[in-house]
Write a structure and sequence with these properties.
The complex is a heterodimer of chains A (288) and B (235). With 288 residues, chain A is mostly helical. Chain A has a two-stranded antiparallel ribbon with strand order 1-2. With 235 residues, chain B is an alpha/beta fold. In chain B, strands 6-7-8-3-9-10 form a 6-stranded mixed β-sheet, sandwiched between helices. Chain B has a 4-stranded antiparallel β-sheet with strand order 2-1-4-5, with helices on one face. In chain B, a hairpin with a 2-residue loop joins strand 9 and strand 10. The termini of chain B are far apart. The relative contact order of chain B is 0.19. Classes of the chains: A mainly alpha (288), B alpha/beta (235). Chains A and B meet through helix 6 and helix 7 of A and helix 2 and helix 3 of B.
Chain lengths: 288, 235
């Protein structure tokens, strides 16, 4: 029963990793931009949520109603004002600019909020648990987090394949020049993709901040988890990203159960093993 | 007094970096007219279409569409103004279905006669295959889808770049046979072709490009084969 609990916890945390990864994967898919600042944007979202909850005195989950649109607007402005100028045939300029952005966000947060660890308090929901069966317990918050993650992935999938915006994303991803010839303003399409990515980042950031302590320096590690989930799942597949997050979460949970020091190592080893055996990931996009 | 031309190019120079691809190209097309642009490989035909469509910006000269300059407008604005391009090599979006490709064309929201069902009337085979991914179509069907996609934006001017490229002659004839039905809706067309016979049959007016310059132009029926050959090869 102990192992059932361990694996269950890993699956639930995998939902959070999938949310880290989904925004990253979306941006890379639509505009071939590797966003090195993604993890720091997650932390930024956590601090925005901290300010919103403290100022308005609302609980973290309700604060998402504000934090999500705030982050989406930041994403749109960031893309229109900065990142669109870095895009071209060369992958390097956006990589360098988002790397710089990562440093700016970390140090900006450090100046504003100091290096102290913070946490969002969600009240009694944090300690509520259900007994699934004899000896197997689930926390309410990890369960909510997982359900939200599945809903986010399902919504993204539906948006990509059932809406005009999703069609524009896929067309722009296929062929930017022709997308423009068909009347799509690719600068706007890219900015909408970044807005959507940071909306997901907002949700991920709030759940991260409720779950554990955060400080301005923890972004890069979240970026790594996101990358690993994307690569394990296979680029371009949303459900694959969820599977990738779950595999990463379960590996970490198993590692931690064996020895607490092995938690991160076990995740990285699982990632490397899958990269070695299936470099295209478990569920690569079926090429049309 | 005759109406102003729908599209007028005056002394357009276009460059790729330091390489000049068009030299003082002047051209005009009236509403409802079909114009063919012919010329050998590298004569500047595709450059001309890219310049009109807004994919590249001419360095000198004027381009007026419906009386307003379009030389500085980006491609997506040019589409909104009513110019659509059927690109060379068709370039359908491979990860979209046939119908999604057509819908992307319609996303500019220009009102007009062309809808999904009208495109399917014109090319019935596309209706049968609407839910297939674009790469699953044959070359000819892909060309039909590319034309349909451009029509979905309800252009006033349709630019067709090398429709016949890589297609069997019977398919080319089949596609050209549908063009009159498109022109009947009142739009104008610029057809860029290497297949001179098709171009001369389809168009009322012909421009021949040679090394970036207009070497010859006139009404299709007035031009002799000899004069076209001379302009085409520069002999």
């Amino acid at each position: 029963m102990e192992w059932v609990n361990v694996i269950l916890q890993g699956v639930l945390i995998g939902g959070l990793y999938a949310m880290f990864a989904a925004g990253l994967s979306l941006i890379f898919g639509v505009m071939r931009l590797v966003n090195i600042a993604h993890g720091d944007l997650i932390v930024l979202a956590a601090y925005v949520a901290l300010m919103v909850t403290q100022t308005l005195g609302i609980d973290p989950l309700s604060s998402l109603l504000l934090v999500t649109p705030i982050m989406a607007v930041i994403g749109y402005a960031l893309q229109r004002g900065l990142l669109n100028r870095t895009l071209g045939d060369d992958l390097l300029p956006p990589l360098l600019v988002t790397f710089g952005l990562s440093i700016i966000i970390q140090n900006g947060l450090l100046e504003l909020f100091t290096a102290d660890s913070r946490k969002l308090q969600a009240g009694s929901i944090e300690i509520e648990t259900f007994q699934l069966m004899q000896g197997v317990w689930v926390g309410a918050l990890p369960l909510i987090q997982f359900v939200v993650a599945v809903a986010v992935i399902a919504a993204l999938q539906a948006l990509f394949y059932r809406t005009a915006l999703g069609r524009a994303f896929r067309a722009t991803s296929d062929d930017q020049a022709v997308a423009q010839l068909m009347g799509l303003d690719t600068r706007h399409v890219f900015a909408m993709a970044m807005a959507l990515s940071l909306a997901i980042v907002a949700i991920a950031g709030v759940f991260l901040a409720v779950r554990a302590n955060f400080d301005p320096a923890i972004g890069p590690a979240r970026l790594i988890f996101g990358f690993e989930a994307v690569i394990i799942g296979g680029l371009g597949s949303m459900w694959g990203t969820l599977a990738g997050g779950i595999i990463l979460g379960v590996s970490q949970a198993i590692g931690a159960q064996i020895d607490p020091g092995w938690q991160l190592l076990a995740g990285h080893l699982a990632f490397l093993a899958i990269l070695a055996v299936r470099p295209q990931g478990l569920f690569p996009k079926v090429s049309g | 007094m005759p109406d102003a031309p729908l599209l007028e190019l005056r002394a357009v120079d276009a460059y790729y970096g330091d390489f000049q691809a068009l030299f003082g190209v002047s051209l005009q097309i009236d509403a409802g007219q079909v114009v063919a642009v012919i010329g050998a490989n590298g004569a500047g035909k595709s450059t001309l279409l890219k310049s009109i469509a807004g994919l590249m910006r001419p360095r000198r000269g004027n381009m007026l569409f419906d009386g307003a300059p379009i030389g500085a407008a980006p491609a997506f604005e040019v589409v909104a103004r009513g110019i659509a391009l059927v690109p060379e090599g068709r370039r359908l979006f491979p990860s979209l279905t046939v119908e999604e490709n057509l819908k992307i064309g319609g996303q500019s929201g220009r009102p007009g006669p062309w809808t999904l069902s009208r495109v399917y009337d014109l090319f019935p085979v596309l209706a049968e295959r609407r839910h297939l991914p674009a790469p699953a179509l044959s070359g000819g069907q892909q060309q039909m889808a590319a034309i349909g996609r451009a029509l979905m934006s309800n252009p006033r001017l349709l630019l067709c770049d090398e429709i016949s490229l890589g297609l069997a002659p019977i398919i080319v004839r089949d596609i050209y046979a549908r063009l009159p039905a498109i022109v009947a809706e009142g739009l104008s067309m610029i057809i860029v072709e290497q297949d001179i016979v098709q171009a001369l049959n389809a168009a009322a007016h012909v421009y021949c490009l040679q090394e970036g310059r207009i070497a010859l132009h006139g009404r299709a029926r007035d031009l002799t084969r000899e004069s076209i050959t001379a302009a085409y090869f520069g002999v």
